Amino acid sequence: MTRLAVTGATGTMGSTVLELAKDRADISVGLAISRSGTDKTVAGVAVRSAETLPAGLGEESIDVLVDFTGPDSSVEYVERAADAGVAAVVGTTGFTEAQRDRLRSAAEREPVLVAANFSRGVRALHAALEPVLERLAAYDIEVTETHHNRKRDAPSGTATELLETIETSRESKTRVHGRVGEQPRQAGEIGVHARRAGTIAGEHEILLAGDGEALTLTHRAESRAVFAAGALDAAVWLEGRESGWYSFEEVLTSP
Fold this sequence. Notes:
Oligomer: single chain
Largest sheet: 8 strands, mixed
Number of domains: 2
Strand order of the largest sheet: 3-4-2-1-5-6-7-13
């Protein structure tokens, strides 16, 4: 059984991870951490303050830390986990290059798995996108992503990964974030559009259009539970691995 610590326990994703974890026979939760609301209990687990994390990791014999918080706190939590000999699964997005460097440094000591999206459908979308880009090399491309009104980073981490895949297939590429006024499309443009509204879990659409036809690839997450479930699968897979930098793709394709 994989023993977990969950940070951001009172947040939307942290509480979803805790709710799903309680119903899994291969997982137990030993530690729930939050920077606020530490007098609460989530999914039957008492929430503790962030200051107790370093000691709690050892006291509760934690195997893997699962983090969906913010870039600053995420880096701090992963570094504390590495200090304690604990692996980390990270679903936080919006890291700067300097922050990603710190995460990679932690991965030199303990296994760290960072993913912008823990959905199996999104991984399938990535796999489907590459042959489409090859066959429709001259088509115009627009990427649109839609998320809930509290999401901080734009474009989303998933959209950024999709854009990177698109850009590797194009010799000429320029990201254009939205359009206003007179802006006829220029050669090599990749349109990028980020929408924020309501409680939408996540939707990503790639539009490829040529003369007389258009193809749309779309993934829609109907619940944040799909991301939490993927992160829990990743935590079980990551336990006992050698130190290093891992991806969710490896969880889906490796034993």
